[in-house]
Each structure stands twice: as C-alpha cells, then as structure tokens.
Amino acid sequence: MSLDQNKIPQATAKRLPLYYRFLNNLQMQGKTRVSSKELSEAVKVDSATIRRDFSYFGALGKKGYGYNVEYLLGFFRKTLDQDELTEVALIGVGNLGTAFLNYNFTKNNNTKIMLAFDADPEKVGKEIGGVPIYHIDDMEEKLGNVKVAILTIPAQEADRITERLVVKGIKGILNFTPARITVPDDVRVHHIDLAIELQALVYFLKHYPLEKIDNEEENTY
Ligand SMILES: NC(=O)c1ccc[n+]([C@@H]2O[C@H](COP(=O)([O-])OP(=O)(O)OC[C@H]3O[C@@H](n4cnc5c(N)ncnc54)[C@H](O)[C@@H]3O)[C@@H](O)[C@H]2O)c1
C-alpha cells in the first residue's frame, strides 16, 4: 500500500498530521472505528471535506460503521514517512534536554536524536544516551543534513539559536522554550508548553470527565 504523493491535493496532505494524531489517540483508547462526524468534531474539519480527503487514501467509510481506525493509521504512517528514519538535533543539554537524550524516540517512532549541542564546556565532548554533545559554536559545522531540531535552551537564547538554525537550513523546530520564535514561512515550528498542556488536562477533567467503560475497551495509556 503506497501513496503517490503527487495525487493528493496539498490541502489534504496538510491535514494528514491532524487526522493521524487524533486516530492514534483513538487507537490507544482501544477504538477500532470512527465516523466522519466524530472526526469532524475532533479535528474541526467539516465532514464532507473529511470524506473527500479519505477517498484519496482509498478509505471508503461504510454507512453505520464509519472508518476502520487501523487501516487509516497504517496508511498515514506510511504517508507521513514514519517508516523512514529522521535525524534530529537537540540544542541545550540541561534538565529537559538530558531527559530527551536518555529517552530518545526510536521505540515508538522513527526519529532519532543523532547529536546535541550545549554552551557549557563541562558537557561538551561527553555522550548521553549514546548521543555526542558538541559545542554550540560548532553547530553549523556538525549539523550536516539534519533538518529537525529540538530546542531545550533558556528562553532568552531561543531567537539567536533559531536564526542560526534557519540559516543552516533547518525546516522543523520543536520548541520547548517559552519563547515565541519567529521563522520564515518555509520553516515549521511546533511549540510545546507543558504548563498549557497541564492546564488543558485539568480543564478537560473538569468539563469532559471520562466515563468508565467495560474491560476490553479500557484506556491503555
Ligand atoms: N525542565 C522542565 O521541566 C521544562 C519544562 C518545560 C519547558 N522547559 C523549558 O526548556 C528549556 C530548558 O529547560 P531546562 O530546565 O532543561 O534548563 P537548564 O538550565 O537545565 O538547561 C539549559 C541548557 O542549555 C544550555 N545553554 C544555554 N545557552 C545555550 C546556548 N546559547 N546554546 C546552547 N546551549 C545553551 C545550558 O548550558 C544548559 O545545559 C527552558 O527554556 C525551559 O523554560 C523546561
């Protein structure tokens, strides 16, 4: 099963990660199917658009059944290049950065932190979780063809480092700093703010409490 990327419209392709994330959550909750209406409410895309998008993936929803979650996920994984290893650089090997290096991502994903940078000479030259740490001054020289970076540096350093990453040709930044960084249109930034995530969780607990469901469908987080 493979997808000719040229055949799906760009607007559809852009919605793929959105669908993927939601379907992944559904699967983790043990759900095997989903209706276009449910999807529509969750991802805020109208259901006619969803049906049209999914028809490009060869997924035809059945009336009264909906879409098969596993089929769609299998399809999206392929399409989103989950089967290819993506090399990632991590900038800032402090509390958070060290945790990421020890964790690395290969267990669930095909992304791997290949190298890390820090300004602290105490850290440079060492390895954590098998990942070498280089001096930030050597970033441009060492980055090679890496296109994705994780930022775990102090907020006040974020703009300066981002500028250098962009010049070097980085296309995706996972920003853990509280700083809102500015990038050109062709660079994608995902900002992860743990405080906001936690607030959202508490909000959901309060306003959308989950109900206990029977054993085989129990949440498996
Ligand atoms: N620790 C957390 O739980 C947490 C949670 C959410 C967000 N954050 C954010 O993540 C970032 C990192 O947090 P932390 O707790 O790991 O901080 P930390 O102070 O432990 O680590 C920061 C690291 O960045 C390095 N550094 C400083 N300037 C640099 C530069 N110019 N180039 C390269 N490396 C540089 C430092 O030497 C240090 O190793 C912060 O912006 C913080 O607000 C942290």
UniProtKB/TrEMBL annotation:
GO biological process, one term: response to redox state
Binding of NAD(+), residues: 92-97
Name of the gene encoding the protein in the UniProt record: rex
Species classification: Bacteria, Bacillati, Bacillota, Bacilli, Bacillales
Domain CoA-binding, first and last residues per copy: 81-180
Record's protein name: Redox-sensing transcriptional repressor Rex
NCBIfam families per record: PRK05472.1-3, PRK05472.1-5, PRK05472.2-3, PRK05472.2-4, PRK05472.2-5
UniProt main location, coarse: cytoplasm
Subunit structure: Homodimer.
PANTHER family the record matches: REDOX-SENSING TRANSCRIPTIONAL REPRESSOR REX, REDOX-SENSING TRANSCRIPTIONAL REPRESSOR REX 1
Source organism of the structure: Ornithinibacillus hominis
GO terms under cellular component: cytoplasm
Free-text function comment from the UniProt entry: Modulates transcription in response to changes in cellular NADH/NAD(+) redox state.
Entry's Gene Ontology molecular function annotations: DNA binding; DNA-binding transcription factor activity
Family classification: Belongs to the transcriptional regulatory Rex family.
InterPro entries on file: CoA-bd, NAD(P)-bd_dom_sf, Rex_bacilli-type, Rex_DNA-bd_C_dom, Tscrpt_rep_Rex, WH-like_DNA-bd_sf, WH_DNA-bd_sf
Tagged with keyword Cell membrane: no
DNA-binding region range list: 18-57
Pfam families linked to this entry: CoA_binding, Put_DNA-bind_N
